[in-house]
Amino acid sequence: MNILLTGGAGYIGSHTYVALLEAGYTPVILDNFSNSHPAVLGRLQRVTDRQVLCETGDVRDTAFVQDVLRKHSIQAVIHLAGDKAVGESVANPLKYYFNNLGGAISLMQAMQAVDCKVLVFSSSATVYGDPASVPIAEHFPRSHTNPYGHTKLVIEDMLAAQSAARPDWKVAVLRYFNPVGAHACGLIGEDPAGIPNNLMPYISRVALGQLPFLEVFGGDYPTPDGTGVRDYIHVCDLAEGHVAAVRAMLGGSSGMQVNLGTGRGYSVLEVVRAFEQASGRTVRHRIAPRRPGDVAQCYANPGLARQQLGWQARRTLEQMCADAWRWQSGNPNGYRDDA
Ligand code: NAD
Ligand code: UFG
């Protein structure tokens, strides 16, 4: 069964590609490589020992997406393509509204035109804004604090409206918490351009000596050690969550909105210590002012995903750190060293 992966060359998409193949599906990547490197395709071929199916183009090009859906007889789409940097979305909101909303609308129009009705969407825990309490359940109020978060919220609403108008559409909205780590083979992983915004890739580069030290954003949060608490989830667990969602949607589920998290929060300092243990390196760090827009704690109630998808995260923080380190130390320049 053929599954289209928009944004399949990116961090989460490349891991989802491997998980889909392992589960017996045939994934087809659609990507414009605006935030990924074509070398990932060669890596995916090495990991899976199979020719990689990839269509290069923009998801906002509706005619192109229609052609791809028809050409590959696509049964379901996992929509990961989009821009994701919170700070950039504040500085350049139109880029985010154009790419994220434009991409989702174009994709849904193309799907409607060819009568493809199964869609799994990459949403984010960011739709919960600053939650009133933790763990966060799916019925919690949604809000947004930046244009990136706003695009996720609006796309969720567009999908709900489309499902209401077309009850034969099957839509799964997956709200990711904090994906980290890499495939255990060490050949694929997170490869942010420039200086990383996110904690784990930043720590990896400090451990490698590419960055001098980590700034811990805030040491005075109302958390056990004063630093921010997040629900870090291994990217391979997340990838398996997508497979479970595709299986459920193709198996007759009418649709869902679920958290993909572990249900366990770790502080920044706990992650630093776990990474030091996994890498055998020191991660120099110092407490810095809070980062604007950050919340103190964010972790999931993962019960609904367990119930509706029969899925739960299995990998530990130690594995997340070990796998992130294997990837980063084996590929200090990410995919850029490949031809
Ligand atoms: P990523 O940037 O590594 O992957 C996104 C991919 O989409 C890239 O390969 C990029 O080239 C491609 N792309 C972007 N715009 C496109 C377009 N118009 N047409 C075709 N391809 C396009 O990001 P990721 O971390 O893999 O995230 C994937 C999805 O998951 C995103 O929608 C993101 O918002 C969401 N998400 C990510 C996180 C996270 O922490 N990584 C958390 C929550 C949600
Ligand atoms: N942090 C630091 N120093 C850094 C980077 C991060 O102390 O250099 C801290 C943050 O303050 C936060 C924690 O590490 O407490 C995690 O920060 P990340 O930037 O890695 O992740 P966020 O929780 O801020 O956000 C991420 C994605 C969002 C997504 C959200 C979902 O970047 O796109 O997870 O929960 F919406």
Main β-sheet, spatial strand arrangement? 3-2-1-4-5-6-11
CATH C-level of the domain at 2-183 and 232-262 and 301-313? Alpha Beta
Total strands: the figure is 14
CATH A-level architecture of the domain at 2-183 and 232-262 and 301-313: 3-Layer(aba) Sandwich
Helix/sheet category? alpha/beta
Strand count, sense and barrel status of the largest sheet are: 7 strands, parallel
Strand content: 15-25%
The pLDDT mean sits at 97
Q: If you consult CATH, what is the topology of the domain at 2-183 and 232-262 and 301-313?
A: Rossmann fold
Helicity range of the residues? 40-55%
What gross morphology would you assign? globular
Cα radius of gyration in angstroms = 19 Å
Looking at CATH, the homologous superfamily of the domain at 2-183 and 232-262 and 301-313 is NAD(P)-binding Rossmann-like Domain
Bound molecules: nicotinamide-adenine-dinucleotide, uridine-5'-diphosphate-4-deoxy-4-fluoro-alpha-D-galactose
